[in-house]
Amino acid sequence: MVVGKQYGPELLRFVDRGERPFVLGPTHEEVITDLIRNELSSYKQLPLNFYQIQTKFRDEVRPRFGVMRSREFLMKDAYSFHTSQESLQETYDAMYAAYSKIFSRMGLDFRAVQADTGSIGGSASHEFQVLAQSGEDDVVFSDTSDYAANIELAEAIAPKEPRAAATQEMTLVDTPNAKTIAELVEQFNLPIEKTVKTLLVKAVEGSSFPLVALLVRGDHELNEVKAEKLPQVASPLTFATEEEIRAVVKAGPGSLGPVNMPIPVVIDRTVAAMSDFAAGANIDGKHYFGINWDRDVATPEVADIRNVVAGDPSPDGQGTLLIKRGIEVGHIFQLGTKYSEALKASVQGEDGRNQILTMGCYGIGVTRVVAAAIEQNYDERGIVWPDAIAPFPGGDSADEHAQILPRTRAC
Questions:
Q1: Average pLDDT score over residue span 130-138
Q2: Separation CA 59–CA 24 (nearest Å)
Q3: What pLDDT is recorded for position 59?
Q4: β 211-217/265-268 pair status
Q5: Do residue 136 and residue 13 come from a single domain?
Q6: pLDDT at residue number 70
Q7: Do 287 and 369 fall into the same domain?
Q8: Spatial separation of the C-alpha atoms in residues 272 and 355, rounded to whole Å
Q9: Segment holding 86, helix H or strand E
Q10: 3-class SS at 89?
Q11: What is the CATH number of the domain that holds 189?
Q12: Per DSSP, what are the bridge partners of residue 150?
């Protein structure tokens, strides 16, 4: 309906014997919105919050660890409807608190983190991540404050120290066997913190240039979610092929840099603070050493486009960042009017005029909670179930067993 194209290949599709296309629902925003638009007529009926516990389907590329990531799973999903952002915020806060209590009662060590809204859409989002080494996600949090975010959303703040003065002249160096940062560092004994890597991605449709150059420090990784949100960059983010790069720059991927780059350039905040650094010369087999901004090349647009690393300062100014692996067991979104506008879901407002509904959605991966609980609670003899989700009560002594047995029989 609304998000088929946005959801992409994870949407599980099939055709019946009549060759009619069908999909199996990964979530049910469209279904519940279509239902509600035919049932509600007045603002007086709101706010409302509906939930269900039902099987969902996603065509995962790599199902793994049993129910940790599977193509079929059980989900508790809820959808709320409102006539104002203020009303949505109240329900969102209540659901945030409820989810926190649920996972705390289960005895899980978790973090509620700011998250990207992804294919679901909306203006705000939080994930509930159970900390575990087997987790698929990187969870970022401060060692001092309550700040927490997933790796896609965590802000990498600009260095506080001013850019150091130039001490080197820019020099063109032959580097025929250095096509990666690792090779450049090893062969020329350079500190990796003094290198810059250049990645070319496709520009937004209608741009004067086909590609955009993104620069991050040699030991940092491009954050693809942040990069995709740049106004110059096409969505979904698509890296340029070698053929596309050579058509524009006349050099291969291992020799790219900011000097004489013929397309728009966006550099990370950390790169903007660098001096005397090395980068490709946009000539095959050559790099420039000793590059300095505003002397050898004008400082281009600066943006936060990298992943944070452990030890970075916390964006809230309190402490430094830690990074641990996490298993996502819950996710809440402020959807706004994305689905209600598309499906024309409205009610009569207090002023008598038609008003598009404002929505929120809230999900718990029921089967994944079980897997996450096991990852945090086991010993050499097997699973140690938290009391709240244990299949039956147990005790360590004969007296405790004697007290438990009558209650068990009564169930």
A1: 92
A2: 9
A3: 80
A4: parallel
A5: yes
A6: 77
A7: no
A8: 46
A9: helix 85-105
A10: helix
A11: 3.90.960.10
A12: 139
